[in-house]
Specification:
By secondary structure, the protein is mainly β. The protein has one domain. The chain is built from three helices and twelve strands. Strands 1, 2, 3, 4, 5, 6, 7, 8, 11 and 12 form a ten-stranded antiparallel sheet that branches. Strands 9-10 form a two-stranded antiparallel ribbon. β4 and β5 form a beta hairpin.
Length: 292
């Protein structure tokens, strides 16, 4: 698992964010304008493609499906996973305003539903393939819980686990802190792609990026559409990530990649935003109540 940081680069330059080709390592970091949210995550993803494709259907046929999509409510999904917020840091003061478990609250989440619809590749010097992937749809949800997440259940669909239905033991039963949808704007002039990434078929190392609009949660009011995507449309969040092939325990459990990245966002009060504005005080109380 790789830890990642978010910084407040206001939308001017978008660095690729990680999703492992479909190994889309998404949601490694969540960020607010003036704040950095560092996240750790695991990703189940479609990885190797037998050739180029230009629709969701042809990409389904050409790709090796993600474990988390088999038997899922969304069998075409190519990237899904879990993440935990490690810390939230003010970029103006450098002060860490939240750490995982602070006040008995753990912020853990699921990202899911990204559909690869355009895959192209070029041959690298070592004979492997460098993939360029465009995806549709996708979203994230973050819950406040009294315990941190566990990667042990893995991404395989089972009782209480279907990432594309935003169900995962120990995460989705908490209090909803934030939810959002990936939106177009990650590629200049492209009004269709919601997530863009590139990776190597041999190492599964790569990068990806996408914008997110907030749809709900107790912290939703703390975000404004203060970022412009590459097409000039206002958005709430920008996610940027890097990723690499999962190894050891994570790989044994069926995870494809682990990743890190950054999310940038604007908030109504970037100089005075406090944990209360993010809903952390309320969810902390709820998390403590859930243990009693």
């Amino acid at each position: 698992m790789i830890k990642s940081t978010i910084h407040t680069a206001v939308a001017a330059t978008l660095v690729a964010m990680g999703a492992a080709g479909s190994a889309q390592a998404v949601a490694p970091v969540l960020a607010l304008d003036g704040y950095e949210i560092t996240i750790t995550n695991y990703d189940s993803a479609t990885t190797l493609y037998t050739g180029a494709c230009t629709t969701v259907g042809t990409c389904d046929a050409a790709g090796s499906p993600a474990l988390g999509s088999l038997g899922s409510v969304n069998g075409s999904a190519d990237s899904m996973g879990i993440f935990s917020i490690d810390r939230i840091t003010s970029t103006s003061t450098g002060k860490v305003v939240y750490r995982s478990g602070q006040g008995g609250t753990f912020l853990t989440g699921i990202f899911a539903g990204l559909l690869d619809y355009n895959v192209s590749g070029s041959t690298a010097v070592d004979g492997s393939t460098n993939y360029s992937i465009k995806a549709l749809d996708g979203g994230i949800k973050v819950w406040a819980n009294s315990t941190d997440y566990s990667s042990a259940p893995g991404p395989k669909v089972a009782a209480g686990v279907d990432l594309n239905a935003y169900q995962y033991a120990g995460i989705s039963a908490g209090d909803l802190w934030l939810s959002g949808d990936f939106t177009p704007g990650a590629i200049l002039g492209d009004t269709t792609t919601t997530y863009a990434n590139a990776y190597n078929s041999k190492t599964l190392a790569g990068v990806g990026q996408g914008f997110i609009d907030i749809t709900g949660g107790t912290a939703a009011g703390s975000f404004i559409k203060g970022l412009n995507d590459l097409n000039g449309v206002g958005r709430n969040l920008f996610l940027k990530a890097t990723f690499s092939e999962a190894t050891g325990f994570a790989a044994d459990k069926g995870w494809s990649v682990s990743s890190g990245g950054v999310i940038t966002s604007a908030v109504p009060e970037p100089t005075t935003l406090a944990l209360a504005a993010l809903g952390l005080v309320a969810v902390g109380s709820a998390a403590r109540r859930s243990r009693t």
